[in-house]
Amino acid sequence: MTEPNMVARRDRRPLPVQVYGQLRDKITSGVYEPGSRLPSEAELSELFSVSRITVREALRMLQRDMLIESRHGRGHYVLDAGGLVKKPIGELQGVTELMESLGYPVESTVLSVRREPVGERAAVLGIEPDDEVFRLERLRTSGGEAMIYSIDILPVRIFGGGEPDWGCSLLEAMEKEGIWIAYSRATIRAVTLPRSVVRQAGVPSALPWILMDQVNFTSEHRPVLLSRDYHRGDKFEFETLRQRHNE
């Protein structure tokens, strides 16, 4: 059995992500309370049996997500996370990548996948109206708890007439076909989960969710994927820097 403070060597995630996940759990569970000082890099290195480079990367991820702050010459201190996961809203990640970067073990359930005419979405995807698309509906859970519900729509021709493993990362499947997503245009709003999904997700119908509607583009500015991702509102929080421009 793996020791509580040891990274799991059979875990396929990078070591910094594993250390990050364990430290994040200690912070959100109150083992390390807001305002308290984390052990030093050397102490954490010994605690997790990893290098100090690994520890520094894990600490960088905790700072990125506003869980800790670095005080020059004094170490790293825990911020009040309020039980939420904070992510920079300008950072584009796939759902699987997002959850793994936060230390969540990802379980993916395919609710439905079908081929259908692109219809009115043809102009958005830059394809012909009679072209077909895949409509993929999935639920991501962690430890049996619903975290993200997503709908993805993409041209059938991307996979040359075949189909990838829909349970894996969609972005990785597209990259295997030579298609790399570089940026997206997103609309973000607060919603509740569609009634048709509430029972499958096993969550209260009134639970708030953060919906991101995105058109995803390649570096050549070609739209290749429409994604609609519902992030559980009591688990995720996104942040951005807003600046005032004086005329």
Notes on the structure:
The protein is of the alpha+beta class and 247 residues long. It folds into 2 domains: 15-78, Winged helix-like DNA-binding domain superfamily/Winged helix DNA-binding domain (Arc Repressor Mutant, subunit A); 85-239, Chorismate lyase, CATH 3.40.1410. It is built from 7 helices and 10 strands. The strands form 3 sheets. Strands 4-5-6-9-8-7 form a 6-stranded antiparallel β-sheet, with helices on one face. Strand 8 (208-218) and strand 9 (223-232) form a beta hairpin. The longest helix is centred in the first third of the chain and has 14 residues, at 15-28. The radius of gyration is 20 Å and the shape is elongated. The model has no long low-confidence stretch (mean pLDDT 84).
Q: What is the share of helical residues?
A: 10-25%
Mean pLDDT: 84
Per CATH, the class of the largest domain reads: Alpha Beta
Report the CATH architecture of the largest domain: 3-Layer(aba) Sandwich
Number of strands: 10
Strand order of the largest sheet: 4-5-6-9-8-7
Largest sheet: 6 strands, antiparallel
User: What is the fourth-level CATH superfamily of the largest domain?
Assistant: Chorismate lyase-like
Q: What pattern of helices and strands is seen along the backbone?
A: HHHEEEHEHEEHEHEEE
Radius of gyration: 20 Å
Number of individual domains: 2
Give the CA-based shape.
Answer: elongated
CATH topology name of the largest domain:
Chorismate lyase
- Beta-strand residue percentage: 25-35%
Q: Could you state the oligomeric state of the chains shown? A: single chain
Return residue spans where pLDDT drops below 50 for at least 5 consecutive residues.
Answer: none
Cα distance spanning the termini:
62 Å
Given helix and strand content, the structural type is: alpha+beta
